[in-house]
Design goal:
single chain, mainly beta, Immunoglobulin-like, 1 helix, 13 strands, about 35% strand, elongated
Length: about 170
């Protein structure tokens, strides 16, 4: 009888461990995705040109003056938001002496187009003295123009003067 009980216990244990357990399980899967936007490209396509300047007389170049106003062309991802920051000189430096000539940029001396405007009819007038945030156009384009005023003194040294005007752009992520 002992053998029968032992065999029955073994069979019972095998039945317990061999029967698959009935569990409810579901699986949901998602993907992690990202799109890398195209890199930005900026080209300074025209210098800010004041030409000949008379000592003691301020000279203004409007942002609308084609061929004289400074110009950059920007390409990137269509409709992406950009931050634009201009680093502006306060003086132009004589190219061969220590002489300088003051230069000034007022709050309406810069403008931009997203490709649907023009230099004379821009999409926006921007303050070159502060950062700005705008979107590239449908074609991923933007143009920025800048004018300014040089203020030569009565005793301004003759010769050529120059300084860098730098436009820094970056995607904002918006």
């Amino acid at each position: 009888m002992k053998k029968i009980i032992t065999r029955a216990a073994v069979v019972l244990l095998l039945a317990v461990f061999m029967v698959p357990s009935a569990k409810s399980q579901e699986i949901g899967i998602i993907q992690a995705t990202a799109t890398v936007i195209s890199s930005l490209s900026i080209l300074g396509s025209n210098n800010l040109v004041f030409g000949s300047v008379t000592p003691g007389i301020n000279k203004i170049v409007p942002r609308t003056s084609a061929g004289f106003a400074g110009e950059w062309s920007i390409t990137g991802t269509s409709l992406a938001e950009l931050s634009l920051t201009l680093t502006l000189p306060t003086v132009l430096n004589h190219t061969s002496t220590a002489a300088t000539m003051p230069i000034n940029f007022n709050s309406t001396d810069a403008a931009l187009s997203d490709g649907s405007g023009s230099q004379t009819v821009p999409n926006a007038v921007i303050d070159p003295n502060g950062p700005s945030v705008f979107r590239l156009g449908l074609g991923g384009l933007m143009y920025v123009w800048i004018g300014g005023t040089v203020q030569p003194t009565v005793a301004q040294s003759g010769g050529d003067y120059a300084s860098n005007v730098t436009l820094t752009i970056a995607y904002t992520g918006n």
